[in-house]
UniProtKB/TrEMBL annotation:
Residues 22-161 form the Nudix hydrolase domain. PANTHER family: MITOCHONDRIAL COENZYME A DIPHOSPHATASE NUDT8, NUDIX HYDROLASE. InterPro entries: CoAse, NUDIX_hydrolase-like_dom_sf, NUDIX_hydrolase_dom. Its cofactor is Mn(2+); Mg(2+). GO terms for molecular function: coenzyme A diphosphatase activity; metal ion binding. The keyword Hydrolase applies. SUPFAM superfamilies: Nudix (SSF55811). It comes from the Bacteria. The keyword Cytoplasm does not apply. The lineage of its organism: Bacteria, Pseudomonadati, Nitrospinota/Tectimicrobiota group, Candidatus Tectimicrobiota, Candidatus Entotheonellia. Keywords: Hydrolase, Magnesium, Manganese, Metal-binding. Gene3D superfamilies: Nucleoside Triphosphate Pyrophosphohydrolase. Pfam families: NUDIX. This is Nudix hydrolase domain-containing protein.
Length: 190
């Protein structure tokens, strides 16, 4: 199945945006297989964080000058936040860039396969805990709850996925929705 996702993402041409006024960020959507079931890893961000505090998110963060690419950013930040060694990630592909509405970021998301079990080591300054959600649950709840609103003169869609009281929304909800839609378009069974 991972090979199928990788083929799907490699055949997909993600939209890459260039908006000089935006801060750049890279995130990783980690997947693993346990007992034949794919699960996706999310973080619960610490309430001490400056941006998106307390939200459910993918590991990742802001681009730094030492990063060669936004993929390097996503992998470095995943290592810093949850102890995910970049050498243990098989990058399956890239999704569409996303502009955040409040924090002024341009986010480039990547999907990666990681081994299970994994000895995560959380940086408690950034991450309270992990949420590992079965991919079939997310697919069964796609499309999620959706709200359309106006923000700064443009229409913004927000998607909300609820898993055991953990609400995935905002930029992470949009990234997740786009990934699930890709899987659905390619009739990918998981």
């Amino acid at each position: 199945m991972a090979a199928h996702i990788q083929q799907m993402l490699q055949a997909y041409t993600p939209s890459e945006l260039s908006v000089p006024s935006r801060k750049l960020a890279g995130v990783l959507a980690p997947l693993y297989v346990h007992e034949g079931e794919y699960r996706m890893v999310f973080t619960k961000r610490s309430d001490r964080m400056l941006h998106h505090r307390g939200q459910i998110s993918f590991p990742g963060g802001g681009h730094e000058s030492a990063d060669d690419s936004l993929l390097d950013t996503a992998l470095r930040e995943s290592d810093e936040e949850i102890g995910l060694n970049p050498e243990h990630v098989t990058v399956l592909g890239q999704l569409d860039d996303l502009l955040t509405t409040g924090s002024n970021y341009l986010i480039r998301p990547y999907v990666g396969l990681i081994p299970y079990p994994y000895p995560f080591e959380l940086d408690k300054r950034e991450t309270d805990y992990l949420i590992e959600v079965p991919l079939h649950f997310l697919r069964q709840h796609n499309p999620p709850c959706q709200i359309t609103r106006e923000h700064e003169g443009r229409i913004v869609e927000s998607f909300f996925f609820d898993y055991e009281g953990h609400v995935i929304w905002g930029a992470t909800g949009k990234i997740l929705k786009r990934f699930l839609d890709l899987l659905d378009r390619h009739n990918t069974d998981m």
